[in-house]
Design goal:
699 residues, golgi apparatus, OSBP_sf, alpha+beta, 13-stranded antiparallel β-sheet, 30% helix, lipid-binding, PH-domain like
């Protein structure tokens, strides 16, 4: 009874992007099952500024920080609230959950299901379908499996009726009661003896059952929001979003292999017909093309991804997509809606990780193996911040097989010499940089050039290869990455499977490295990016290695984007450098001699890449290939962007089908398969070795 008392107090409420957070006085009316708020405590006797019905609501602590939580009503309305600290948040969340459960169970008791009544998932016309009849003998399992029936061709998306949600809530309440009984039975076991409350299998069962119930509650929340959005008519009459229409079976749609019905060819824009009429890639020239850096111009494109408007407007579309996904589902073959896309290809995103070429070039200037390893770690940790365009989590275009991206950077030699010592805000052992002297009388440019090329070498699985080199400094990096994405409920996880290799030919050293996982969090509200996982950097020749941990934020407390790491000498197991901080903010490096250095990533100078103009690019270079999608997104025309994107994907499917029928293997252009990896066809270590051999033969 104590927990059912009314509570009140001030909380911060998120209004919108313009107004932001505002203090409001909240009252939890347990008897009525309402959460009300007022401008301040003095206006409590007036009409509430807002009211939420808590029956059927879902109360969710946020993973953004330890103070924020959301109240998602069955109507689809949402309050995003913030308490003063974690303890106050827990107090409000627990009281709201108790009130919500009480009133939700009351609805279930007052509205018992009619066992003899058949029902239809569709609003009309499909009640006579044998596959959609509910029989008195049906149990909860068969009820939850109703969603797996194939929908008749041409029918609209099914609408869940309100009383069906009550049925689901009642079954979940029963399951929650059984789960509580299970937990109680386990906890009542003796602490010692043959079967104890600390038995590993029982602890696993306890944890799994709790996780299962949490997952079911999240799924039920999605159903509530989906129903509410459909009731409100979020999609205007006549709107057609192709993947919402069940023109093909869901399974085939996710396989990304079935042909779709498109408007007549004459009705398509010329740019779409052009995209579909490009010849089969293997019939194009697959000979590697030497890109002249002098043809490349400084890139003036600056597409920051800070616009949330489309995401907010299309929430019902996101909800519908989420309702069709299963936890752990591989999203590689799922066609995602266009409005969540960045205005660049994944291949170009890899290039943006090279936006600090001065730090990359400076690696080889380290006078000892220890310095060079530390320099590489510094460069590695500073690369992720610029690789993200803004704080909003959006997805780059999935590269088309055979797609390529070329660019380069020019760094004045004087800038490299000074930046290596002055970019950072404290003294360090790395401040002295020695550059090779220019040969007198030799007309060499006063800048270094770093060249970059990337290619999509495989479609299933999606594998990208990329390569960068600085010939003057005799260094290059080669990497291949397989992006595996999974649906994790309210977030999406992307595992970067693959390996990179940095070669410092001047020192005869090779550094292998891996990449962290990436997560798109809070995909129903304000999506944001988080990195997680452990990566390793190793140099077999010198015996130095680095271990770096990207920490995901814990449920309670903790900081966002935290990273820690250490560099050590493997032979002696001596730690020579430790690093901590945030990968998108400030990093702190502490060296074995006691000195400390801080790197403020927000103040690091970014070198703009150089890219050939569109008219000089090949048909399968990223910017020319996706130019119509990008232009439509910039203009805010989502429908046109979707049409152009669909045309590219349809062409890729047709080409893949043709290759399968003719048993024609795909021909890569710049990368060759070696073992489990992909290597650039003309890496610097091969050309340098060949040149040395030729010189010896001449002598």
């Amino acid at each position: 009874s104590d927990h059912m008392e009314n509570i009140y107090g001030y909380l911060m409420k998120y209004t919108n992007l313009v107004t932001g957070w505002q203090y409001r006085f909240f009252v939890l009316n347990n008897e009525a099952g309402l959460l009300e708020y007022f401008v301040n405590e003095q206006s409590r006797h007036l009409k509430p500024r807002g009211t939420l019905q808590l029956a059927g609501a879902v109360i969710s602590p946020s993973d953004e920080d330890s103070h924020t939580f959301t109240v998602n009503a069955a109507s689809g309305e949402q309050y995003k609230l913030r308490a003063t600290d974690a303890k106050e948040r827990q107090h409000w969340v627990s009281r709201l959950q108790i009130c919500t459960q009480h009133h939700t169970e009351a609805i279930g008791k007052n509205n018992p299901p009619l066992k003899s009544r058949s029902f239809s998932l569709a609003s009309q016309g499909s009640a006579n379908s044998p596959g959609l009849q509910r029989r008195p003998s049906q149990n909860a399992v068969s009820f939850f499996n109703v969603g797996h029936h194939r929908l008749p061709t041409g029918k609209r998306v099914p609408i869940m009726q309100p009383d069906h949600l009550v049925d689901v809530r009642e079954m979940m309440s029963q399951a929650e009661g059984q789960q509580r009984d299970l937990i109680r039975s386990i906890e009542c076991l003796p602490a010692s003896g043959h079967l104890t409350s600390l038995d590993q299998d029982l602890l696993m069962l306890k944890a799994t059952s709790m996780a299962t119930m949490n997952c079911l509650n999240d799924c039920f929340h999605i159903l509530q929001l989906q129903h509410a959005s459909q009731q409100k008519g979020s999609l205007p009459t006549g709107t057609t979003i192709s993947w919402l229409e069940p023109k093909i079976s869901l399974a085939n749609h996710f396989k990304n292999g079935a042909a779709q019905n498109f408007p007549a060819e004459i009705n398509k824009p010329a740019s779409v017909r052009e995209e579909q009429s490009i010849a089969e890639p293997c019939q194009l020239t697959r000979e590697p093309e030497e890109i002249d850096p002098d043809e490349e111009l400084e890139d003036m494109c600056d597409d920051k991804e800070d616009d949330l408007g489309a995401v907010e407007e299309q929430r019902s579309v996101i909800l519908h997509l989420l309702s069709q996904l299963k936890l752990g589902m591989d999203l590689t073959r799922v066609v995602l809606p266009t409005f969540i896309l960045e205005k660049r290809s994944l291949l170009e995103m890899y290039a943006d990780f090279m936006s600090h070429p001065d730090l990359f070039i400076a690696i080889t200037d380290g006078t000892t193996p220890e310095e060079r390893m530390i320099r590489f770690v510094e460069y590695y940790l500073t690369s992720f911040h610029e690789g993200r365009k803004g704080a909003i989590a959006k997805k780059p275009y999935n590269p088309i097989i055979g797609e390529t991206f070329h660019c380069s950077w020019r760094m004045p030699k004087s800038d490299v010499a000074t930046d290596a010592g002055s970019t950072f805000s404290a003294h360090s052992p790395l401040e002295q940089v020695t550059l090779p002297k220019l040969v007198e009388g030799q007309a060499e440019p006063d800048y270094y050039t770093v060249k970059f090329v990337a290619e999509q070498v495989s479609h299933h699985p999606p594998v990208s290869g990329f390569y960068a080199e600085c010939v003057e400094r005799k260094m290059c990096v080669n990497a291949h990455v397989w992006t595996k994405s999974k649906f994790l409920g309210m977030s999406i996880g992307v595992t970067m499977v693959g390996e990179g290799l940095l070669s410092l030919l001047e020192h005869g050293e090779e550094y292998t490295f891996s990449l962290p996982c990436a997560y798109a969090r809070s995909i129903l509200t304000v999506p944001w990016v988080e990195l997680g996982g452990k990566v390793n950097i190793n140099c077999a020749k010198t015996g130095y290695s680095a271990s770096i941990n990207f920490h995901t934020k814990p449920f309670y407390g903790g900081k966002l984007h935290r990273v820690t790491g250490e560099v050590k000498q493997n032979m002696t197991n001596t730690v020579v450098c430790r690093v901590q901080g945030e990968w998108n903010s400030v990093l702190e490096f502490t060296y074995s001699n006691g000195e400390t250095k801080y790197v403020d990533l927000t103040k690091l100078s970014v070198t703009r890449k150089r890219v050939r103009p569109l008219e000089k690019q090949g048909a399968f270079e990223s910017r020319r290939l996706w130019q119509h999608v990008t232009e439509s997104l910039r203009d805010g025309d989502i429908d046109k962007a979707t049409e152009h994107k669909r045309a590219l994907e349809e062409r890729q499917r047709n080409e893949e089908r043709l290759r399968a029928e003719t048993e024609t293997p795909w021909c890569t252009k710049y990368f060759l398969k070696e073992g489990d990896g992909w290597v650039y066809h003309k890496p610097l270590w091969k050309t340098t070795s060949a040149a040395q051999t030729q010189q010896m033969d001449t002598n």
